[in-house]
């Protein structure tokens, strides 16, 4: 296809505003798939997922559109990952596009993700085509939605705004016409050395790592010697092709084309979105800027329930193959036995993996309280320990000082809940660095300790904003912090898996709350057991977990009760070693720690 006849674009929208439905209509109206196939296709993908335990995450597809002017255009619809945790990935998919359809549901109007995604698109200098969807719905408020869209940006103030029903197909033809009129053709140079952007990747158990690429300059021929610039690795060039929507091999990809390359790489972590693919012998002068290696921010232990250790290991192994940010190492806890220390991009990522383990593998896992990475500077030596497991946190006597990670976050929210959102950020030690308006929405920028957003922050934000505020996070840097390790002892014996790290100033209040919760979540025994929170060797909070009721009724005689209890307690002290494994730790116990963070 001639370069000037190619259009590369994405659809950006708030969740449920109709992105997938519009994508299906576009594929149908360009005869990429038949109406029957559009259903069958989705089904197939799911079966593939089930069969291989993989996610068919991208629906990037090449379409040929026969326009009203008689010209045939190549429309590459580039899918973007949907989740806020993956801002960087979203941004790279957008960088592979020249235009974006901004889709807004007329029954809901502009929402926080509309704003957040629009900003990413504008940062990538995309031409925006605004489209109002669901005009068939009785609850549609089309004019109001149009005003909200116009208020989003000066450029949209004048733009033609299309009105469609992705469901019935009404107005979709006009949008297809607008795509070649409004969006620019790719602007790269055919004669220049090969330069392609890796904007997504995929792991196939037979073929290894497959990269999704957009050719920006030059040509990519099958078998040509190529390399990844940021990773500095030569890769094989075994197969290249396009999405129709299934993978279809070709001999050549040229400027503006969007397609894939089978890299021959077996390790999914060796390829990163954002890298530059170029000719090994005649490389392009400059790689794409802003390449970021995977940076897991949150760690937690996964432990099998129901003795399903081997099943869990297999499932984790499979999931991690397709997700370079989800990695794991084996770990052992005295309290929980054998498990895995896993890394995540953030807490939502952790939740997604947990759900997938449950839905796709039927596995329930015990998740320990998540934590971030600390840089622990040791006394006397110049050694810096990177600690992402509280169990491994060095003893306080050895520590010179500790650094914790900070993030820059951006919250998009509506005005009505602004006060509550700011209170939330305050309570989590956020420092407001910038604040601005976007239509009727407010955008807040904070610098905040990553640990503060690693746990419950997102849920709290969603709950305050009735689900609508968005959170974008980005690692900033490390900063010295006065943090301490809290150990939890039950019946005088430290339960290693319950250890966690907090700011010293928060420790007293948090541990008071924690022991109160433990009173209800630790299973009772025949005798009373103390639960203590210990910081730097000192118990700073304590509660007694009452004994099982039935035991309290021995003969109804008070003295004998206490005698019996005292006896039981003495026995238990002698048996402390054995007692360790006796305390059944349920998810509730770990959630107690989450609840108070
Ligand atoms: P996505 O999350 O943006 O991909 O949204 P979907 O395409 O999955 O659509 C979300 C829901 O809205 C689905 O139940 C669709 O059937 C429905 N939907 C999408 N477009 C329209 C439309 O034009 N009219 C109506 N009434 N419903 C629609
Ligand atoms: Mg969808």
From TrEMBL:
Binding site for GTP: 16-21, 133-136
InterPro entries, per the entry: EF-4, EFG_III/V, EFG_V-like, EFTu-like_2, LepA_C_sf, LepA_CTD, P-loop_NTPase, Small_GTP-bd
Keyword Nucleotide-binding: yes
EC numbers for this chain: 3.6.5.n1
Secretion signal span: none
UniProt-listed PROSITE patterns: G_TR_2 (PS51722)
Domain Tr-type G residues, every copy: 4-187
One function term, GO molecular function aspect: GTPase activity
GO BP, one annotated term: positive regulation of translation
Principal location class: membrane
Membrane topology type: Peripheral membrane protein
Places the protein is found: Cell membrane
Any Pfam family matching the protein: LepA_C
Assigned keywords, A-Z: Cell membrane, Elongation factor, GTP-binding, Hydrolase, Membrane, Nucleotide-binding, Protein biosynthesis
Transmembrane segments: none
UniProt enzyme class: hydrolase
GO CC annotation: plasma membrane
Catalysed reactions, semicolon-separated: GTP + H2O = GDP + phosphate + H(+)
Family per similarity comment: Belongs to the TRAFAC class translation factor GTPase superfamily. Classic translation factor GTPase family. LepA subfamily.
Role summary: Required for accurate and efficient protein synthesis under certain stress conditions. May act as a fidelity factor of the translation reaction, by catalyzing a one-codon backward translocation of tRNAs on improperly translocated ribosomes. Back-translocation proceeds from a post-translocation (POST) complex to a pre-translocation (PRE) complex, thus giving elongation factor G a second chance to translocate the tRNAs correctly. Binds to ribosomes in a GTP-dependent manner.
Record PANTHER family: TRANSLATION FACTOR GUF1 HOMOLOG, CHLOROPLASTIC (PTHR43512:SF4), TRANSLATION FACTOR GUF1-RELATED (PTHR43512)
Protein name as annotated: Elongation factor 4
Organism (species): Lacticaseibacillus sharpeae JCM 1186 = DSM 20505
Encoding gene (name): lepA
